[in-house]
Design brief:
Chain lengths: 118, 111
């Protein structure tokens, strides 16, 4: 297993276009997270899945954003009608929590997909 | 509302000396804290974690200290090495599901 893979690594698009990012998590991980990171900021939580169920969404995730994980394996994050404010690094992470005890959930991140909206 | 804060954007340390990176949080419900390291063009990599039932956790050259009353944690790296030069993020959680990250501290270890 080569870790968490994200594709594409870079995407340049014009305002108003739709973009889709793909994340392939570590195969045995049942949780998958999407984060967004802008310059000078830390990663901001967008949403996460447990298997195919989307369990939590941030208020940052406007109705132009949709994430899916149809078979509980890979996930896609689609942004419709992109805006310049969507320019950011989109990070995917996966994990396999071993219960509720502290230390049970460690996220493994991919290298990210950088979006530039012109 | 920035619930996790790293007030030092950058830090420079001589090789062999101690690096101390600080992090403050506002949510008293946080019970699990992590440090991540990030190199350019890579995703963050997990470094070390601590539960709120502990006040110290050590892993080799890395030690994390937690002061719950002050809502403060710190990461100590000793001795610092040039390969430690990276951006360090602290993160916190109260459910083990959603993690809140700080804005990062860029550490430079000078040979």
């Amino acid at each position: 297993d080569t870790g968490v893979s994200q594709d594409p690594r870079h995407k340049i698009t014009k305002r108003g276009q739709n973009v889709t990012f793909r994340c392939d998590p570590i195969s045995e991980h049942n949780r998958l997270y999407w984060y967004r990171q802008t310059l000078g900021q830390g990663p901001e939580f967008l949403t996460y899945f447990q298997n195919e169920a989307q369990l939590e969404k941030s208020r940052l995730l406007s109705d132009r954003f949709s994430a899916e994980r149809p078979k509980g394996s890979f996930s896609t994050l689609e942004i419709q009608r992109t805006e310049q404010g969507d320019s950011a690094m989109y990070l995917c992470a996966s994990s396999s929590p071993k219960g509720r005890r502290a230390g049970a959930n460690v996220l493994t991140f991919g290298a990210g997909s950088r979006l530039t909206v012109l | 509302d920035q619930q996790v804060k790293q007030n030092s954007p950058s830090l420079s340390v001589q090789e062999g000396r101690i690096s101390i990176l600080n992090c403050d949080y506002t949510n008293s419900m946080f019970d699990y804290f992590l440090w991540y390291k990030k190199y350019p063009a890579e995703g963050p990599t997990f470094l070390i974690s601590i539960s709120s039932i502990k006040d110290k956790n050590e892993d080799g050259r890395f030690t994390v200290f937690l002061n719950k009353s002050a809502k403060h944690l710190s990461l100590h790296i000793v001795p610092s090495q040039p390969g430690d030069s990276a951006v360090y993020f602290c993160a916190a959680s109260n459910t083990g599901n959603q993690f809140y990250f700080g804005t990062g501290t860029s550490l430079t270890v000078i040979p």
